């Protein structure tokens, strides 16, 4: 019988303590609902940025030197569903020009609908770019963040919506 049964852990990445770019081994500090302190998450987590919401499958272990850790055997990134998670995700630097303070303002205004609003905004950009390809084509969906054109358009749209909401 396995002494450490496999467990699922949903968490938000708060900081990256260590990453080995050669083999992907990473040590992350994550926030987990029900835990007052940050939890140490270890495993092959190289492509995970701060602010990501992860669903990990693995087991708890106690390291003699570093204490209690969750060792992830597998993981997948999910979209944040809470106001806290959305704020961390947006404020992580994924979108140039949206830092922690601006992310907080966006999430305070749009709440848990923030991701849906941003998704709709990027779909609109895709339609405009299809009609005007000279301005630069971009993917809709998850890939849009890698295009500076879309990040800048997104930043302008969100700022405009925040100004409209503040005055309206």
Overall description:
The protein is an alpha+beta fold. The protein contains four helices and five strands, in the order βββββαααα. The chain has helices at 83-94, 100-110, 114-131, 148-167; strands at 7-19, 25-31, 39-44, 53-63, 67-78. The chain has a five-stranded mixed β-barrel with strand order 1-2-3-5-4. β4 and β5 (67-78) form a beta hairpin. α1 packs antiparallel against α2 (100-110) and α3 crosses α4 (148-167). The chain is elongated, with a radius of gyration of 19 Å. The termini are far apart.
Q: Which segments are poorly predicted (pLDDT under 50) over 5 or more consecutive residues?
A: 132-147, 164-168
Number of helical segments with 4 or more residues: 4
Order of helices and strands: EEEEEHHHH
Shape: elongated
Strand order of the largest sheet: 1-2-3-5-4
Q: State the distance separating the first and last CA atoms.
A: 62 Å
- What's the pLDDT, averaged over the residues? 77
Radius of gyration computed on alpha carbons: 19 Å
Task: Give short descriptive properties of this protein.
168 residues; 5-stranded mixed barrel; 5 strands; elongated; disordered C terminus
Please specify the SSE layout and strand pairing:
Blueprint: E1 7-19, E2 25-31, E3 39-44, E4 53-63, E5 67-78, H1 83-94, H2 100-110, H3 114-131, H4 148-167
Parallel strand pairs: 3-5
Antiparallel strand pairs: 1-2, 1-4, 2-3, 4-5
Helix pairs in contact: 1-2, 3-4
């Amino acid at each position: 019988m396995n002494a450490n049964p496999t467990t699922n852990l949903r968490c938000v990445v708060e900081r990256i303590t260590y990453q080995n770019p050669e083999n992907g081994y990473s040590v992350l500090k994550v926030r987990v609902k029900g835990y007052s302190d940050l939890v140490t998450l270890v495993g092959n987590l190289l492509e995970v940025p701060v602010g990501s919401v992860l669903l990990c499958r693995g087991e708890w272990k106690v390291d003699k030197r570093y204490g209690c850790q969750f060792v992830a055997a597998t993981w997948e990134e999910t979209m944040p569903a809470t106001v806290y998670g959305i704020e961390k995700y947006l404020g992580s630097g994924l979108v140039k020009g949206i830092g922690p303070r601006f992310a907080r303002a966006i999430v305070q205004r749009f709440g848990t609908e923030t991701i849906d609003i941003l998704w709709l905004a990027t779909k609109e950009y895709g339609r405009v770019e299809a009609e005007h390809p000279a301005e630069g084509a971009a993917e809709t969906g998850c890939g849009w963040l890698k295009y500076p054109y879309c990040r800048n358009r997104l930043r302008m749209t969100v700022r405009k919506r925040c100004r409209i909401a503040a005055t309206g």
